[in-house]
Amino acid sequence: MCDPITLTTLAVSAASAIVGADATRRATNTQADQVRAQVAQNDSALQAQQQQIGEASAEQMSERARQAMIERGRMVAIQADSGAAGNNLQRGIASIDQAEGQDMATLEANRQNNIAQAQRGKQADELRGNGDIAAMPTPSLLGAGLQIAGSTLGAYTRTQAGQIPNKATGQADAFSGPQYNSYQYQTGT
Fold first, then answer.
1. How far apart, in Å, are the Cα atoms of 68 and each of 44, 63, 94, 111, 169?
2. What count of other Cβ atoms lies within 10 Å of the Cβ of residue 77?
3. Mapping DSSP to helix (H, G, I), strand (E, B) and coil, where does residue 165 land?
4. pLDDT score of 17 more than 70
């Protein structure tokens, strides 16, 4: 049942299945490492972006506070020049303070929204990376075993049918198989 050709085919099939599974595993690991590196690089970029958002927001708030201080100074200077005092000055300063407070709240809300948007981008990037890793082919021992079994069965079937492929052409040799062994061909018996 197990002639040398079948055993050789089994050995070659087993070796090629193992090598193929190992190559697939290494390629998958390399791709997964590349995806993880890209996600880490994007995370670093996000951290830099969040720092820039915070710095820009702090600068805008500082500028708005400076403008409010200048407006208050003008209001006090106008009051001192005109000699007017009382409720008008207090209302003017209260109006400046209220506008400053609204502007500061708007700037802070914008800062938080920008950071939240960047975080959502990070989460989407991580999900995309995890999905890419999950979609990568992973070899299994069962698959390798089935590949070996299929190759062996195919080789055995071809051997039994007398269709051993010629290595040079890949075509079945017309004079191969048990009915054409060299002794029968030479003697005619």
1. 36, 9, 11, 20, 90
2. 10
3. strand
4. yes
CA distances for 73 relative to 65, 69, 105, 128, 180, angstroms: 12, 6, 22, 54, 114
From CA 169, how far away is CA 56, in angstroms rounded? 72
Half-sphere exposure of 171 (CA within 13 A, CB side): 4
Answer whether 0.90 is exceeded by the pTM: no
Domain-wise residue ranges, the chain: 4-163
Residue 121 is encoded by which pair of tokens? 């981008």
Residue 83's alpha-carbon distances to 16, 76, 78, 91, in angstroms, are 99, 10, 8, 16
Residue 113: C-alpha distances to residues 48, 118, 160 (Å): 16, 9, 73
Task: Answer whether 158's CB lies under 8 Å from 165's CB.
Answer: yes
| Burial bucket for residue 173 (CB in 10 Å: 0-12, 13-18, 19+) | middle
